[in-house]
């Protein structure tokens, strides 16, 4: 038997053409498309408005390469971390983050990561491959179902802040977001989706040129090149002046302010020089700052700064007219917090 084709790689028009070739009406393609993308079904047998012969044909020639939750952990604060097994046996992690007002899905875009941010556990994994659009989509569907099952509430927000650099999987991430936001898909507002990047200036400009309407966040952590070079080697090729120019271009095109993610570490960026540099940087582009509580991944050099220093950061930003919020980490007891996603599940390390 021939290798089965992944049916979710086909467009609506291609699905309609398949049914036309079988002597069926084109609307059958629309029905199938809705089962795949609006209802997220994982089996042709469940597609009850298609006749049995059609379902058998689809099952013979096509496959739905859906994900499965290999392991689910629940934190004492209600956070849920999923070890998500892909069709080839590799594993990524996704996280459901509940608060009083929202439920957020933190989604991965790559298996591992090709960047080497020195403070991040995910960076210790080599990048094995990009996720396909359907694999990204399925993470959202899974967390949407968990939100309804465990909290009786809808999924409200999505952040691409899991494993991998989304802008290094540009086309697949945008295709997934199109399915997530489309009325023929999950119908979520793009304004409730945030894509987080380490700051790839060429790709930020491409986002702006492509007219995306989701939110943009940049993992900044220092507004002094010397410090940021040491934290994130990507800064050597994307220095702060070039990053700033790309963000100004982004705002000019989209009129959407950027969110800076910023961790304050003891002895690294917890001084007035770094605070003043951040304030000056933020004044040059409409922005807000999320000061993120750090979650140590070992006993190395990166340790959370004194809370008084963190509050000092927030106060100076606010005094300069820059919106700033201190984000308390959730899911730390199950290694689900920011920077902790490292796929300790052994199946993730298969190559």
- Overall pLDDT level: 90
Query: What pattern of helices and strands is seen along the backbone?
Result: EHHHEEEEEEEHEHEHEHHEHEHE
- Strand content is 15-25%
Distance between the termini: 27 Å
Q: Gyration radius, to the nearest Å?
A: 22 Å
What can you see in these coordinates?
With 351 residues, this protein is α/β, with parallel strands linked by helices. The protein is built from ten helices and 14 strands. The strands form three sheets. A ten-stranded mixed beta sheet has the order 3-4-5-6-9-10-11-12-13-14, with helices on one face. It has a two-stranded parallel sheet with strand order 1-2. The radius of gyration is 22 Å and the shape is elongated.
What is the topological layout?
Elements lengths: L4 E2 L5 H10 L5 H11 L14 H10 E2 L4 E7 L5 E6 L5 E8 L4 E4 L3 E2 L17 E2 L2 H19 L5 E4 L9 H12 L11 E5 L3 H9 L5 E5 L5 H7 L8 H15 L3 E6 L8 H11 L4 E6 L14 H13 L4 E4 L24
Parallel strand pairs: 1-2, 6-9, 9-10, 10-11, 11-12, 12-13, 13-14
Antiparallel strand pairs: 3-4, 4-5, 5-6, 7-8
Helix pairs in contact: 1-2, 4-5, 6-8
